[in-house]
Write a structure and sequence with these properties.
Layout (H helix, E strand, L loop, with lengths): L2 H4 L12 H36 L20 H31 L3 H32 L25
Length: 165
């Protein structure tokens, strides 16, 4: 039998690290996983909102979407603003998911923290840019025409004027 094979220690007989070292590694890995999950989940939520805006499925009554005075003045302005803001918002979602994946792939905790931080900042910058573009697009939409009142016909709503029907 060759000399090197006699001295090899089988895997089950090797010395194991103490329990506190294993527990610390588990806690660090769990923290890294949770930290990497933050930009990934944020990216999925933001990307989904961008997709709904692109498909013009965002309702005005909810809290999602571009919400400024210009966008809230009409349904058309809200629809146009969210359609314009959809592409940067979906890009922000992709950046968030990629930042989460990159944070998981980092070899140490500092890399994970940096990837998470830069990913979250990039998501917010892209969403803010999309909001600015959406606001500008909504400002370009003409204001809705207010219905004119009665022209002095003294109809009193009795069927003489079409405004009150």
């Amino acid at each position: 039998m060759p000399k090197g094979l006699r001295t090899a220690v089988p895997p089950w007989a090797r010395a194991r690290p103490p329990r506190h070292v294993v527990a610390r590694r588990v806690v660090i890995l769990a923290g890294v996983f949770v930290l990497a999950l933050i930009p990934a989940l944020l990216g999925v939520l933001v990307g989904w909102g961008g997709f709904l805006g692109w498909r013009e499925k965002l309702p005005r009554s909810r809290g999602a979407g571009v919400r400024t005075d210009a966008t809230m003045r009409s349904d058309e302005a809200f629809r146009v603003a969210n359609r314009v803001a959809a592409l940067p918002t979906m890009a922000a979602g992709v950046v968030g998911v990629l930042a989460g994946v990159a944070a998981l792939a980092m070899p140490d905790t500092l890399g994970t923290v940096l990837a998470t931080t830069f990913g979250i900042v990039a998501v917010f910058v892209l969403v803010a840019g999309g909001g600015v573009l959406g606001h500008r697009a909504a400002s370009a939409v003409p204001a809705p025409v207010e219905p004119a009142g009665c022209g002095g016909c003294a109809c009193s709503g009795g069927g003489g004027c079409g405004v009150l029907r």
